[in-house]
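dude i think i finally got it to work??
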Amino acid sequence: MSLPLAFAGMPGGLEWVIIGLVALLLFGKRLPGIARSLGQAVTELRSGLSGKSEAEERGE
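look at this
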């Protein structure tokens, strides 16, 4: 008796490692750019939520 796919659960440790390796193989050259864009988006989101502009944050 097998479980339906909906009840399979979250991947464990080894599965996450395999998923990470596959992602690295597929997106390896693009990962630094993706991470940089994500970091900039988070920074802009935080500054937008606080209501400060970039010049105010730098102390200008």
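The chain is about 65% helix and 0% strand.
im so relieved honestly
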